[in-house]
């Protein structure tokens, strides 16, 4: 638990104890002393068992309710404001080639979007989804622009996450620099989806943090990309992830020239991957985040968004540099834009 939240929890526990003491002093009842027909509801059992429970508890029913209420409040305080701290962290030392299946709680910020097809995203705070603009307005101009936006959260199994139900989207905000009519330019490939209602945070559903410094983009730094996209030509049924190093910009520029590519590779993008080890994000992963561990804050940061590439696992992948857009993101989420 974070130090500030620990202090709050301690105060709440102290208050709970004080209320419990006052309640017992002023109203010295026990569950057993109440008439049976007025006793709090219990699981169906024998009358003897009910009376035994009452004697063991020796508390007023209101105290039980208050204790439950404050326990719930402690949980709320623990989760509020906490980002980038998964309940089941991945083993950062497992740099084995290839993808791996994610466990529940590894990437609790992971969102599945279904708009024109599968896409990804990440939970920010408790009601925002960070994603790529091109999953909403594809570069293919023949697509309609009023497609429904479906967001799913809270599981690593595709059937289970869909069974949990879609979260209604209140608002879609695409960065003004994004140009869907320019097929070779993914500048501004970033968007926010505001959910209709705040989600109930849990160990399997937690937000990721936004980056705050350039050191998170150092070449060689490892990041993790997760998604429900393509693998070996087929859509996966389980959330997969891959670890990728941030590549040197010069290496990616040279590779694009070698391939005679004309895509824009601006300062608001970065590249990741390794030409010798064929690992990469793929179709269906777009919009998911490139997550980097920050040793200073000990939290995971959404430093990039899966944006574009040339085929899959055949070189480098290119990502929207989230740090370039943090001010814009915060202005939207804080209602200043």
Let me know the average pLDDT.
79
The total tally of domains equals 2
| Percent strand | 15-25%
Order of helical and strand elements: HHHEEEEEHEEEEEEHEEEEH
* Rg, Cα atoms, Å: 25 Å
Strand order of the largest sheet: 1-11-8-13-14-15-12
- The secondary structure category is alpha+beta
Largest sheet, strands/sense/barrel: 7 strands, antiparallel
Global morphology? globular
Number of alpha- plus pi-helical segments: 6
Contiguous uncertain segments of 5+ residues: 1-57, 70-79
Can you tell me the CATH architecture of the largest domain?
Beta Barrel
Portion in helices: 10-25%
CATH fold name of the largest domain, please?
A: Thrombin, subunit H
**CATH uppermost class of the largest domain:** Mainly Beta
Distance from N terminus to C terminus (CA atoms, Å) equals 33 Å
**What would CATH call the homologous superfamily of the largest domain?**
Trypsin-like serine proteases
Total beta strands: 15
Commentary on this structure:
- The protein folds into 2 domains: 3-79, no CATH class; 100-333, Thrombin, subunit H, CATH 2.40.10.10.
- The protein has 337 residues and is an alpha+beta fold.
- The relative contact order is 0.14.
- The strands form 3 sheets. A 7-stranded antiparallel sheet has the order 1-11-8-13-14-15-12, with no helix packed on it. The chain has a 6-stranded antiparallel sheet with strand order 5-2-3-4-7-6, covered by helices on one side. It has a two-stranded antiparallel sheet with strand order 9-10.
- It has helices at 3-26, 47-57, 61-79, 158-163, 249-258, 326-333, and strands spanning 100-101, 110-114, 118-124, 128-131, 150-153, 169-174, 191-195, 222-227, 230-231, 234-235, 240-245, 269-272, 289-294, 299-309, 317-321.
- β13 and β14 (299-309) form a beta hairpin.
- It has 6 helices and 15 strands.
- Mean pLDDT is 79; it is low at 1-57 and 70-79.
């Amino acid at each position: 638990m974070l130090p500030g939240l620990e202090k709050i929890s301690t105060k709440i526990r102290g208050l709970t104890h004080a209320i419990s003491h006052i309640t017992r002093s002023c109203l010295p009842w026990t569950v057993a002393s109440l008439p049976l027909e007025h006793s709090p509801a219990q699981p169906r059992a024998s009358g003897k068992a009910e009376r035994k429970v009452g004697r063991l508890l020796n508390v007023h029913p209101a105290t039980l309710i208050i204790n439950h209420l404050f326990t719930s409040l402690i949980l709320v305080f623990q989760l509020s404001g906490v980002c980038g701290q998964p309940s089941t962290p991945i083993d950062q030392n497992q740099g084995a080639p290839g993808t791996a299946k994610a466990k529940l709680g590894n990437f609790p910020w992971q969102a599945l979007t279904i708009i024109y097809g599968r896409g990804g995203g990440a939970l920010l705070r408790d009601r925002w989804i960070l994603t790529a603009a091109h999953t909403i307005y594809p570069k293919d101009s023949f697509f309609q622009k009023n497609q429904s936006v479906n967001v799913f959260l809270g599981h690593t199994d595709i059937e289970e996450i869909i069974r949990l139900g879609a979260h209604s989207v209140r608002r879609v905000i695409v960065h003004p620099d994004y140009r869907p009519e320019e097929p070779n330019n993914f500048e501004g490939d970033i968007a926010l989806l505001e959910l209709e209602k705040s989600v109930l945070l849990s160990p399997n559903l937690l937000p990721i943090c936004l980056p705050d410094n350039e050191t998170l983009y150092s070449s060689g730094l490892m990041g993790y990309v997760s998604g429900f996209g393509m693998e070996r030509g087929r859509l996966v049924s389980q959330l997969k992830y891959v670890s990728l190093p941030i590549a040197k910009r010069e290496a990616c520029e040279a590779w694009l020239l070698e391939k005679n590519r004309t895509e824009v590779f601006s300062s608001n993008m970065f590249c990741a991957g390794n030409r010798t080890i064929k690992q990469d994000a793929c179709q269906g992963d777009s919009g998911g985040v490139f997550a980097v561990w920050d040793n200073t804050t000990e939290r995971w940061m959404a430093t990039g968004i899966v944006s574009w590439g040339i085929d899959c696992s055949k070189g480098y992948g290119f990502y929207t540099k989230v740090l370039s857009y943090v001010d814009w993101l915060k202005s939207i989420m804080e209602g200043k834009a």
